[in-house]
Every structure is written in structure tokens, then in C-alpha cells.
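ok trying again, last paste got cut off:
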Amino acid sequence: MPLFTIITAVYNNTTYIHHALQSVLQQDFEDYEYIIVDDGSTDGTSELLDEYERTYEQIQVIHQENQWIYAS
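nice, full thing came through this time. structure:
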């Protein structure tokens, strides 16, 4: 079980989500999980997140229909 969890909610953010992901992944600490909740993105964000999930074992992506940030 990881020591801690980082959670990011995202919706249609291909422009900046890469920077957030890289910021977390560049840390030296590795005993964590990174959960990203995609709130029904329609701009390619979902596909980008799925690629990261396949590449990095710490990342778990949850896809849901758009419910606004509060449901994420």
C-alpha cells in the first residue's frame, strides 16, 4: 500500500495537465499513488491520461461522465 495518494480532477485540459503530471512524476519519492479523475473530457485529455496510466504504475485514471468538479 502506498504511503500517500495524490488526487487531481481534470476536465478538458490538454494544455496544462501534462505539466501537472510531470511535476509529480519528477519527484524523487516513489511510494505514492496518483489518481486522476477525468470528468468527461472531450478534447483529448482522456486519451493523454490513458497513455500516462499505461506508462507509469503509480498513475490510476478514473473516467466518469461530466458531473462538474464537485463530483470529481
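cool. Strands lie at 4-10, 32-39, 59-64. The longest helix spans residues 45-55.
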